[in-house]
Amino acid sequence: MTGTIPLAVEMRGVIKRFGAATANAGVDLQVARGTIHGIVGENGAGKSTAMNLLFGKYRSDAGEVLLDGNVRRWRSPAEAIAAGIGMVHQHFLLGGPHTALENIILGAEPRRHGFIDTARARADLELLAQAHHLPVPWDTPVDQLPVGIQQRVEILKALYRQARVLILDEPTAVLTPSEADHLLAGLREFVKSGRTVLLVTHKLREVLSWTDQLTVFRAGRTVATLRTKETTAEAVAEKMIGRKVDLKVRWPPGTPTTECLLEVRHLTTAHPGKGLQDISISARAGEIVGIAGVEGNGQSELVRTILSPAEQDLRGGEISWLGTSALRLNSAQVRGLGVASIPEDRISKGLLTEATVQENFILGHQRRSEYSSFGVLKRLAINAAALRVLEDNDVRPADVSVPARVLSGGNQQKLIFGRELHGQPRFIVACQPTRGVDLGAAQFIHEQLVRCRDRGAGVLLVSSELEEILALSDRILVMYGGRIVAEYGRQEATEAELGLRMGGV
Amino acid sequence: LDRGGKDDKSFNSSAFEGANRAKEKLGITLKFVEAADDNAYEGILRSFARRDFDLMIGVGFAQKEAVQKVAVQFPDKHFAIVDSEVQAPNVRSLMFEEHEGAYLVGAIAAMASKSRIIGFVGGMDIPLIRRFAMGYEAGARKIDPGAKVILNFVGITGEAWNNAPKAKELALSQYTGGAEVVFAAAGASNFGVFDAAEERKKLAIGVDSNQNWTKPGFILTSMLKRVDEAVYATILEAQSGKFQGGIRSFGLANQGIGYAVDKYNEKLLTPEIRARVEELKSDILAGKIVVPDFYKTR
Amino acid sequence: MILDELGASTLRVSTPLVFAALGGLYSERAGVVNIALEGMMLVGAFAAAAGTYFAHDPWVGAAAGMASGMSLAAIYALFVISLRANQVVAGTAINILALGLTPLLCKALFEVTSSTPSIPLSDRFHSAPVVAAWILVLVSWIVVQRTPAGLWLRFAGENPDALDSAGVRVNFVRWVAVLISGGLAGLGGASLSLFLSSSFSRNMTAGRGFIALAALIFGKWRPVPAAVACLLFGCFEATQIRLQGITFPGGGSFPVQFVQILPYFLTILVLAGFVGQSRPPRALGLPFRRE
Amino acid sequence: MSGKSVQGLLSALFGVLVGLILGLLVVWGAGENPLTVLRILARGAFGSRYDLGMTLFYSTPLIFTGLSVAVVFRAGMFNIGAEGQLTVGTIAAAMAGILLPFLPMPIAPLVAWVCASLAGAAWGAIPGWLRARRGSHEVINTIMLNFVAAGLCSYFALYPLRNLQSQNPETRGIASQFKLAPFPLFEGAPVGWALPLALLMALFVWFLLWRTVIGFEWRAVGLNEVAARAAGIDVARARVGAFAFAGALAGMVGVAEVLGNSGRFRVGFSPEYGFMGIAVALLGRNHPAGVVAAALLLGALHKGAAELDLETDRVTRDLSLVFQGLIILCVSAEGWWFQNRRRKATAGSQKSTGVVPASNSP
Ligand SMILES: Nc1ncnc2c1ncn2[C@@H]1O[C@H](COP(=O)(O)OP(=O)(O)OP(=O)(O)O)[C@@H](O)[C@H]1O
Ligand SMILES: Nc1ncnc2c1ncn2[C@@H]1O[C@H](COP(=O)(O)OP(=O)(O)OP(=O)(O)O)[C@@H](O)[C@H]1O
Ligand SMILES: [Mg+2]
Ligand SMILES: [Mg+2]
């Protein structure tokens, strides 16, 4: 494609399967040396898989990978690292209780008399950190570091190994816009010396303003490689999704009643300096309250706390659900009041992946009298209800007897939605409801939330996707550092304004 | 012939020796089997009975019920059981008066110990071992009413018979506590006691078969329980067609129980001690001394 | 005097525990649960006794114990690392195997199933194992905290994916760790048959491998605290031995059974009371495989 | 579902086979003819009605302990403590029989059964509670509790309840109306009503786990604790409940032993039924039907091996332990055999399935 500039990395017809799933169905990628190359695509399009193949973490089922024009076939990351590839993983690969320093030097330890030469490591790292504006407290265990700093640790890890080709898989997901810009500006410096960056990201803004070229993934394939200067956000989005899209759907506003379903006042939790600080929220029937914020600013803790106050370490404040004081209620009792929740991580918090779809459907409803009497499950009733829910929510396949693990991510999410909305809850707490879900399913899920609101339920929507927040919310709260730092009405907020607030400005 | 229970180099090996002697001298066919658990005895005895074995000897009290049952089913076969009483015409019960022997070694221990403290290490706290302990204590008190007897047990499960390290620690602690002689009745754990004696240059007493040779110079004597004799005699009678059922008791009187004197401990057992023990022995035989029996206590 | 003696006894009794707990440490820090310590100790005890019997040298015996512990560990590693078997289940199987195999071998070599011939005092260890155990504790501490291999070990148990991405082969690290674990457990067994007694007898470990595991958990998977926990359990045991037969002023005495269960009971209390928060290595028990 | 369980059964059988072959190799190494050994094993286990009866006799406690381990496993934990639970249950059954001699016939055994179950349940609840409330690990706790149970029960057997008529470490005999007569079919082997009880319990466990709310909640906790908690299930209660129920199942070994066999509590009566239960549960893939099958297999192995000593010179009963160990090892890796085969199969037939959602493609 770019005949003149030598290619640093090339992938030809690469295929990768996980059991029955095909993650990469034919990836062709050409990355010119000395450039920042963007990789975009919807969730699950196969970006991370392709990058991991490049890094030797996975082994491809077909196709080949070239580095500097030579076919290479790594058997392990060790070989890829030796060849000069560094990777920052989408999901941090950090050893929690170990220090930042230990995490960075792992596998490339400077040695003296067989021991780790900590002094030299520290000196080298200081230089590196200064050069790239990435200061890190070396001796702090990484699980005590904020995610932004953890991200720096990950980047330093790659830099420390003197990578010539640096793969960054969504490095900015947990950074504020300004932190992200800082990082990306640093990458421009990095490539000036002839090194190469592959930048995987969801954020079109970043791709468009910082990369030289970009490749679009869709459904496990590369569908286009574009010069960044010659394209637009709409064009890229169209390639990603495969049809024309309106990037800005706005649902009609709700008509809140005066009935206050959730009332949180001055809520403060433990973890000094980290927990929730003096949070006040109220949510009425018939409205969607959006909570925006970069991950790691306490949203998960907030949700945990309001859903099971009795199991948390509260330091003060008041929570009331549907007019009932809830400070002493556990999750079962909160649910009993008619509060449903969509967990942020469906596999680990929402599903019994090895159990059947039917059993996943009944989870949480098992004690209701429609589904059991005298402690014995009513199989026929459950079966019928589960089938109905699968059909109503367009879960495919609509088979109640397969294990939940065989459903795709979007269908798993729809199953959880069907289950949680079953029985007409008065209030829904939805966390990152469309994470990892394709656009069609996402729209369906949004529609469901709006429908719940319109029938008079309350909705608390927690999301780090600004578009989602803006599209759905009747009211928007911004969280930063465990506090609510701003509140907007439906028409008052703009993406730029929210972005600033989420960054703590 | 059947051999079951714990293989402990004292009690069972004694039985095995007796049987082996019979095999060599009398040319019988011998087969011994260890059972995996208490419920297996019956099956094994039955298998034996069904084949051409004429005499089945159950070694150990745990086989009582098995022998009882199988003997009824095979009235024309001969059975013997060691350490337990079974009432049947074709069963001979070989009973030992362990308490008498224990009494004698208790007396020996008390005489050999200048500190007036002696020890006892039993395998598990079970009636048979209590019987040893009681006789031992009584014998010591006979010599020295003020003697102190330290009584310890190795464990609470079957492992106790094989836990020599623990037995050794127990014995060490007894020696530290002033004991100069420790009587070990703990199966394979006995060796832990002997090791302790060797290390501390103190004395120990073995049990069942003659264990004097295992640590010459440190084993004062062994309380003998001549299972080998009993077994041999039973086999002999069975072979010569003179087998009779009923209880056959082995005690001091018929040399079924005793204490060992051999080249390994001649020097340890002074003539005075030997004389005094023989005196006690004849008193017991004469009924002048009644040795307390744990089996008969409430 | 009594206290002195109690201290010495504690040191002695805890020695096999220290070896085994260190063994457990290597394996568990690398992410492999090691219920099989008990079995590895048992074969170690047997091989050490047999080796010393034939070679008349306890060091040869100790080497044999170590080697046999490692052989069993290799079987274990093959199943749980390479074949990704469930670690608790496979560990239990290894224990059963050791329980059956040792008497069979004993019978093959010595014609009896229950115990090996006794080893004379001159061929036994006197204090070497105690010293060796504590040296190994310090060595392990330094290795784990200060060397590259130690860092790999910790990451293999904490976040194997991170280790893999750093270019170190996780399963190789785990294999080595489990082999070391087996070697140390074997040494623990050797100290049982060559130091604490003079022969091997059937099932002579009597649950010590599990106690070592408990000490490891109590010591939060760190060498020095784990070894100190072994001392504590050794102290329970030594105290128990001395409590037996102690009579109350009134004349009655505590039933021996109650005294004998004391160490186990205390272990439960200690674990429930103090270690509620101890966090195992995050990847403990999870097999690793790269796609 | 059924396809999966057939596959599971096949792979478990495969593991058993590999384990047996390895075991026979050991035999061969010991200098015996493996085929002869196999024949002896088979005849010892099934050769006569009595032998069959003894096999069933050993299998009965294994069904109880296997179910016990399986239930806890389904709830996401390990029960290494069935041995202690059955010990406690057994002494409780004996106590009932000794201390309540006035109870009339049909009620007496039922009362003993209830006592055994309750005692086992109480003992089982301890590690469950410790795990749920104190966070200490059940594997260590159950092992420790096994020792504690052994000590306590031997105290009861040797002091308050000692049998004065016998030299054995055992309690007095239970009153006669507590006893369950053995079925005459087995020529005197002590197989009585405990066997049907065990089978009934297997059925009940199946029903409980897959047909009731409580069982569903236990399994949910075992499958995904976080999700179960989020769905409002009381995880701590599930843990304690599952462990207590498991303890009750193990405790019922007391029915087989005391009411059906010896009529008393004997110290050391169990050839480690509790530990074998782990193997049984694993072999049976933690499913009641599988547990019954596996208990029969291991019962047969145990009984058959008893015969080995009798017939051969070089192998002893310890061989059955070796067999057990090898079989469990091979079965524990059984997922591997199948996974690899499955991977190959899918690699061949792969076309365009995949998690990539259908609606994603244009
Ligand atoms: N280890 C795995 N086992 C099974 N399926 C996997 C595995 N890793 C990825 N997949 C599946 O492969 C597909 C592609 O995943 P991949 O992580 O490459 O997507 P992605 O483009 O990076 O998405 P995201 O934007 O969410 O990071 C997804 O459907 C995913 O569920
Ligand atoms: N139990 C805990 N111990 C120590 N720190 C904790 C604990 N729970 C949460 N934290 C810290 O508190 C902060 C907020 O955590 P939380 O999980 O609520 O993040 P979040 O912003 O909600 O994430 P997300 O955006 O993914 O929902 C984080 O830095 C986290 O590390
Ligand atoms: Mg990705
Ligand atoms: Mg979070």
Helix amount of chain B: 40-55%
Low-confidence stretches of chain B: 1-8
Tell me, what's the shape of chain A? globular
Shape of chain B: globular
Mean pLDDT of chain A: 84
Chain pair sharing the greatest interface: A-D, 58 and 36 residues
- The low-pLDDT segments of chain A are none
What labels would you give this structure?
heterotetramer, C: 291 residues, mainly alpha, ABC transporter involved in vitamin B12 uptake, BtuC, 12 helices, 71% helix, D: 362 residues, 72% helix, 0% strand, globular, disordered C terminus, binds adenosine-5'-triphosphate, binds magnesium ion
Explained architecture:
The complex is a heterotetramer of chains A (505), B (298), C (291) and D (362). Chain A is built from 17 helices and 24 strands. Chain A is an alpha/beta fold and 505 residues long. In chain A, helix 6 links the parallel strand 9 and strand 10. The mean pLDDT of chain A is 84. Helices cover 41% and strands 19% of the residues of chain B. Chain B has 9 helices and 10 strands. In chain B, strand 4, helix 5 and strand 5 form a beta-alpha-beta unit. The radius of gyration of chain B is 19 Å and the shape is globular. Chains in contact: A-C, A-D, B-C, B-D, C-D. At the A-D interface, strand 2, helix 10, helix 11, strand 20 and helix 14 of A face helix 8, helix 9 and helix 15 of D. The complex binds adenosine-5'-triphosphate (ATP) (2 copies) and magnesium ion (2 copies). One adenosine-5'-triphosphate (ATP) binds next to strand 2 and helix 1 of chain A.
In a nutshell, what does this entry contain?
Chain A is of the alpha/beta class and 505 residues long. Chain D has helices spanning 2-29, 34-46, 49-74, 82-99, 107-134, 138-158, 194-211, 213-223, 225-230, 235-251, 253-262, 273-283, 288-311, 318-332, 334-349.
Task: Lay out the secondary structure.
The complex is a heterotetramer of chains A (505), B (298), C (291) and D (362).
Chain B: H1 11-26, H2 40-50, E1 55-59, H3 64-73, E2 78-82, E3 91-96, H4 98-112, E4 117-124, H5 127-143, E5 148-155, H6 164-176, E6 181-185, H7 190-200, E7 203-208, E8 219-225, H8 227-239, E9 246-250, E10 257-259, H9 271-285
Parallel strand pairs in B: 1-2, 2-3, 3-9, 4-5, 4-6, 6-7, 7-8
Antiparallel strand pairs in B: 8-10
Helix pairs in contact in B: 1-8, 2-3, 4-5, 4-9, 6-7
Chain C: H1 2-29, H2 37-55, H3 58-82, H4 87-110, H5 128-146, H6 148-158, H7 160-165, H8 170-194, H9 208-218, H10 223-243, H11 256-260, H12 262-274
Chain D: H1 2-29, H2 34-46, H3 49-74, H4 82-99, H5 107-134, H6 138-158, H7 194-211, H8 213-223, H9 225-230, H10 235-251, H11 253-262, H12 273-283, H13 288-311, H14 318-332, H15 334-349
Helix pairs in contact in D: 1-2, 1-14, 1-15, 2-3, 2-13, 3-7, 3-10, 3-12, 3-13, 4-5, 4-6, 4-10, 4-11, 4-12, 5-6, 5-10, 5-11, 7-8, 7-13, 8-10, 12-13, 12-14, 13-14
The structure holds adenosine-5'-triphosphate (2 copies) and magnesium ion (2 copies).
